[in-house]
Batch of 2 targets.
Target 1
Amino acid sequence: MISPQELIERAYAVLATRPGFVERQDQRQISLLLADCIEAGNSGAFEAPTGLGKSLACLIPAIACAMALGKRVVIATYTNVLAEQYWRHDLPLALSLFEPFLADLKGDEGPPALPACQFLIGRTRYACLAAGLETQPALIRDFQRRAEMGIESEFRSLAQRPARELSRLWGQISAPPVCPGKLCDHYEPCFYYKARRLAERAQVVITNHSVVLQDALLRRASDGEQTMLGKVDFAILDEAHDFVQAAQNGLEFELSAAKLATLESLAIRLFQSVGSAALTAQSVPEWEKLFRGYKAVLDGAQRGLVDLGMAVQNSGILAATPDSVWRHPQVQKSAIPERLEQAKAIATEVGAATLAFTGEARRQVTAWRDADKIGGEIAKSALDAVRGYATYLADYAYGCFALFDDTPDGIEGPGPLGPASVTHLSMTPDRGPVLRLDLIDFREPLRTLLWEKTPWACLSATLALDGSFDYFVRSTGAEPNFAEILPTPFDFPSQAALYLPPNGRIPDPTWARKSGEEEVYYDALARELRDIIQTMGGGVLALFHSRREMEAVYGRLGLESTRYPVYLQRATGASTTGDRFRENVHSSLFALRSFWTGFDAPGETLRCVTLVRVPFEVPVEPAALARMAYLQAEGLDPFAAHTLPLAKMMMRQGSGRLIRRTEDYGLIALLDPRLRSKRYGEEILENLPSGMRTFDDVVEAAAHLGIGALA
Ligand code: SF4
């Protein structure tokens, strides 16, 4: 049988015949390294710079190993945008590279087939036929006819309505977090469940980090009996620099008014799903009593949360593990131990009532069946419904217990996910009081959920810092058997330059905050950005770390004095703002976190990326405070071990928005004066692409690059 490596060589030979082909040795090298890892079950970390053709480099070995070795490979990205790009653009290209020589590979049973591939993202990104037929029948029928996958981005492009209306309509037709599943009349054609069924059988699955984590949590909760992705031989995590962020989102837990309302609506759905069985069993009063009892507990918890919020007024930390974190002076400053028992009582009651509700529902249906009050088929459907909802509800109940690491006697839960966490009460103006648990060390949870279960490869254009993977390993617990940093294919010395304003032109932002001179700082930033925009003729992407700062500077720009439009990223509609910027070569864009990573504007549109300030995390939020305390307890300096590496990673990501192709060129403007004045400034600069000339005059820098205000 032909080896995966041979298949890869043949696929690249076909690629070399395609129009516009550019030879990239490193792309082929990554493919071969990945194939070795998949074959041997080794795990690897790869820094694969932008422009290398990373997606194709991952897909080719996945396909080759599926064909030659029968391996099942999952490729997961952080953003759905990249997952869709893999699916729509790179996968068809990768498969087409194998087609020309399939006939030559004849075995005893004829030529091998290309592997089955499937796309799967989170369920709420799919349209729900049941909800759509109830609220927007004509729209959903039309969508069902035209959509390939049934996901939100397709809906947005096919429906062709104003953005605000699209969001409202999508809210009506998107799939709920839990649903009757097999009991739904539309289960067979359901977009989401169809994708899941196919994903369990496919040999190559394109998905996102969040699904990989959900799959791992489902396996953990069901002792491996239930999965979303089936048996996985190898997991490739692209955009792996964001994997901790995905873990942060995926492994957090919240008890809030909104979550309690979701529990109630799930209970109503379960109540209705089993309603006809209860009627047949002549047990409606008993069934209603069960539901009413659970609803009363949820209503009580809603009131309890409001009381807690009124008593506290401000956010505060309720508990933290290990004890060294809880005892840390900074954590104690934000602690509200006097509210611990009140908060714990709410969480324990909701958790216990939720488990009791599902347990009693199962007991009642089983009793009706055993007493022959309902037939075998009805009993099976009713028990299936109970089981479907019980998985989600029980999971939520264990989350409630985990909030205070307090599982009532006699209940066996899966236990806490990790050894270090913080539980806090957040007061949010729009969501009211929220009890929330955040993990502060992801190493152990990710090790037990993922790294030890399946061999993996983590890839990103910015995975290494200071030339090593130490920070990645320290923050994720992933220990690769193999690591490789590949060089950039771009010629940074000729394609880009650095601009750092001279000393004294912009005040130190820390000094400005501490001395109450922020107005002076904002004025200086506005002057600087106005100059940059005028000099570059627009095409400036200015990346900020805080909305307050961004809006303050934007307000001072004096737009009437510049000929070029400047867009501002609003609280909603990031994608629309990005599109407007891409469409107008003279426009500039002021944007926040989501634009630091993953935003792509190749070509002339983006001629200057401006990083306004080094994005240091300020430990004011409970999770950040607790993490600092935890690192100190481990004998580490939190700034050196966490804050600075994270900032370096973000600076690499932000500046990486500029050069996306070999034809791109432009300026990286760094406006934070601390890059010149502080020792860490040099370290941050050393992590940017090497060889770029540095200027302290923006006009000279633009002239060096041959950029002038476009006519
Ligand atoms: S199975 Fe669930 S998601 Fe699918 S159509 Fe039915 S209710 Fe909606």
Note: The pocket of iron/sulfur cluster is lined by residues 128-131, 175, 179-181, 184, 186-187, 190, 192-193 (CB under 6 Å).
Target 2
Amino acid sequence: MIFHCPVLVAEVIRYMRLQPGNTYCDCTAGGGGHLLQMLQASPESTFIGIDWDPDAIAHAQSVLQAYHDQCTLIQGNFAEIDLILERLKLDELDGILFDCGVSLYQVTTPARGFSYDHDGPLLMRMSPNTMALKERLRSISKHELAFILRSYGDVRGYRRIAELLYARRMSLRTTVDIRTIVEQGTPKRFQKKNCRRVFQALRIWVNDELNNLANGLAAAFERLRVGGRLIAIAYHSGEDRIIKRQFREHHANKRGVLLAKKVIRPSAEEVRVNPRARSARLRVCEKCA
Ligand SMILES: C[S@@+](CC[C@H](N)C(=O)[O-])C[C@H]1O[C@@H](n2cnc3c(N)ncnc32)[C@H](O)[C@@H]1O
């Protein structure tokens, strides 16, 4: 099973400017793909890997077994990076990576409830401590549901789909129930795209992804040593907006420098090999004195 295929690896390694003896943090360890490449590129550096998903941490632990002396893996929410670093007795870091969104494992494992392609329970949560989609839907208002579909998924016909979902929210049991409703409310030729958008919107809502990113990214910047670099990869316009805004503010306040003037995208060759990389957008900010 392929857990995840890391994107923009060469760019992450180049911008991280890995140095022996320095400490780096991957806030979204996932299957350990970026961590493994960074460990191989700089075996005398120290790494922290955080992920909210215990399955990701278990997988990363097995992939990174040979490096257990240089790499500490922690299950937790990156929005709580301060708490995590305090527990590790670490004040500052030399580089921090956020690779937002979901892993291939999460979206292709029916039991996790992220997938519209397979029947699965209405969970859609990254951490077992988060309230599942099924419970969240029971207490939502029609207005809120429409807002979520529009702002997190740009869903076509979001009002109608919100109405259909709202009317049947108490009897929804599986991901296929949601898919069926979306298909009912969408013209045939847009159904697949709209399913993807609805599932993305619900996932972002259930996991409070945009607030976590805004809080985690801001806290991470404060933990950077002067000269340290914050690298963030977005897959969705909502994520990219938060990253762009924070990095530009640091630049404007002379607390940071934007290292790449333009957003960095994967090459055509990378997208050919890994089509899921196509929406990736990488930004880098270096902390100034
Ligand atoms: C795109 S994947 C990262 C893949 C990883 N870079 C790799 O090479 O395998 C995103 C990961 O971020 C994790 N994640 C999402 N929100 C999180 C949060 N608030 N705190 C910690 N991890 C989070 C997900 O569980 C998922 O494993």
Note: The mean pLDDT is 97.
